[in-house]
Amino acid sequence: MSGTDRAHELGAFLAGIPFFASFDEGTLVWLARHFEPVHAQAGDAIIAEGDPGDGLYVLLSGRLRVSVGAAGGGERVLHDLGRGAVIGEIALLSDRMRSATVRAVRDSDLFLLRTASFKALIEQNPGFLAQMARLLIERLLAVDRPQPHAGNHAIAVAPAGRDPAHAKAIAAALAEQLTGKGTTVLLDRAAVDRQLGSEAAERGPSHPRRNELTGWLDGIERGHDHVVYLTDAEDTEWSRLCLSQSDVALLAGGGTDARLGPVEARALATRWLRCELVLVHRSRPGGTARWLSQRPVADYHHVRDGRPADVARLARMITGTACGVVLGGGGPRGFAHLGVLHALELAGVPVDVVGGTSIGAVMGALCAQGLPHAERVERALRAFTRSGPLMSPTLPLVALSSGNRVDRLLAEHFGGTSIENLPVRFFCVSANLTRAEEVIHERGELWRAIRASLSLPGIFPPVYYDGDLLVDGGALDNVPTEQMRARVGGGTVIAVDISPAVEPMMVAPFGPGLSGWKVLADRLNPLSPPQPVPSVLDIVSRATGLSGTRHQRVTLGGEHVDLLLHPPVPAIGAYDFKAGAALIETGYRHAAEALADSGIPGRFR
Prior knowledge:
The protein is α/β, with parallel strands linked by helices. The protein is built from 22 helices and 22 strands. Helices cover 37% and strands 19% of the residues. Helix 12 (335-346) packs parallel to helix 13. The protein is globular, with a radius of gyration of 28 Å.
């Protein structure tokens, strides 16, 4: 291909990037002629924080990671950049030092427009400077949500443990699933050797024909929406190339032998490569903690035999198109969550991750267990309306209730289960009284995590955990949408707010002092007019959520939520669960109508 043809090809590529799209063809071709090719291997720093700027970079292929210095000498990752990303544009218009470090997290090809070339363009076309300045201002003012794990294009699948059969099965199933989301190809050693000749996959960095191999792979990646690389069982040249070419590495294993395998050991030692664990199970997930103990992975997934929905969930999670549902706290109003979950199910909206606070943690855990709607309803009714009152009164030195009854109920319905062994990803939130910070529970005993999330201060004793005291998460974050956004990346977040703290309380006037004995006497006296004095349960419940309510009014209206559901549930007592059971239908109707108007179900068809 001649230099002119290459310039026009690169100009056409630049025209598809929003930053350059408004430039005329002549300007784009001029830019293309002055761009210098730059190749970076995985781990190379393209830009270092604090260095002087030398120009603007455009990423042709590969993936880059942006980070800034953090306290203690480490780095804080901001986001990842894919094909078409523009980096360092501020350097063209100012003498400022680089504000972040940009590192290649896989082998990458870029083009560099040096500052000197940019100044030459300005001399020829002074109007270009104003156009560039306007584009930079628009870019700085734009609101986006870059995510570290969204939109993975090249995916390596490597054996975890000592059995490579799981990796082969996951690679094939994942490639088939991704085919429905765009052009997809599965590449293994045999596919490369068929195309380029015997032993082509073993061409290392010093091999004279290495460029032929990497060039062919680059063409494959440009021609497909997704590329799935299957490594060898051993740490070969092909395995290393798969890892260096990929945006994310899936470590696939299963069974009881959780010893670290050679390829995954290399992947985990590559600090710029995002690694996620995929465990294959014959039936229900189990033994996850044993696998996670040796593997500092960024995420983990479960795939059960005969469950194509699990593979579909895996595909959505790693491509940033998953759906996360957040269930807020609100006492007996939480029965409305069951109706919302049923509406999502019937509309074809998957629940890939479910998180919640307080009663939202309970209903979310029922969903995460993979139970059908009828069984979720039956268990909730049995726990909250047929097992007697949740309160077990005690001498109120720590709390009004000893917590024994709620402990027994939670242990009955969720005992013996670890969060990491749930088939659907789950987390819940509690508040740390000792450190004044929220706690995210996503590993460990499920029932204890839920118990901490709903430990209303003054009503139930706090939960002791590793020297700290944990209470109801509604004190800090009643609808944890930010936490969900961090888990599903650029996917869909649906939040359900059933908090009762937004409506006025109806109370009768009374003086600064109020005798509990008088309140009791008035209630027992049939001749005394009704006195709407709030109970201690109502007061503590409402007071606990005041801080969380202020927080959620800000976050629920922001970019963390794609659909906010607020079912029109009536005012009911803080522990009137029999009245709350009637709200299942209310939640269902409200969610069904909102989903029909939102267009969200269409994202998953």
